């Protein structure tokens, strides 16, 4: 199991996120990842990938999102790379409004919060015009 990799290249379309999730689910099952870990990572991957697709490319056009998943003995590293607008979701996204009932809250704003809660480490850096988002899950 240690050292297994899954590498994908997605187009910046929301339908590509389903392909990512299906590929990860098969990868996780094939390597015996615990069910809870699989579900938490799927949620994090979905949130991160959807945010890239929806917000990183306001000018439109076709762009690539590179996904690299690397399995260690007791952890999974998820790397997402894109050439969209520079944006650190972990430093720049506004904190979610967790007050009031669910019906009273505005839609959105919980994705980055959920990623932070589901994953054990999160990081962002911009290098050479490329956004690098990393999330690590341990078990």
Summarize, please.
The chain is α+β, with helices and mostly antiparallel strands. Helix content is 35%, strand content 28%.
CATH class reads Alpha Beta
Tell me the Rg in angstroms: 15 Å
Going by helix content, strand content and strand pairing, the class is alpha+beta
Q: From N to C, what is the helix and strand string?
A: EHHEEHHEE
Care to describe what's here?
The chain has a single domain (5-138), classed as 2-Layer Sandwich (Heat Shock Protein 90), CATH 3.30.565. Helix 1 (15-30) runs antiparallel to helix 2 (35-55) and helix 2 (35-55) packs antiparallel against helix 4. Helices cover 35% and strands 28% of the residues. It has four helices and five strands; from the N terminus they run βααββααββ. It is globular. This is ATP-binding protein.
Layout of secondary structure:
Layout: E1 5-11, H1 15-30, H2 35-55, E2 64-71, E3 75-82, H3 89-92, H4 111-118, E4 121-127, E5 130-138
Antiparallel strand pairs: 1-2, 2-3, 3-5, 4-5
Helix pairs in contact: 1-2, 2-4
Features:
139 residues, alpha+beta, Heat Shock Protein 90, 4 helices, transferase, ATP-binding, kinase, Anti-sigma-factor_SerPK, ATP binding
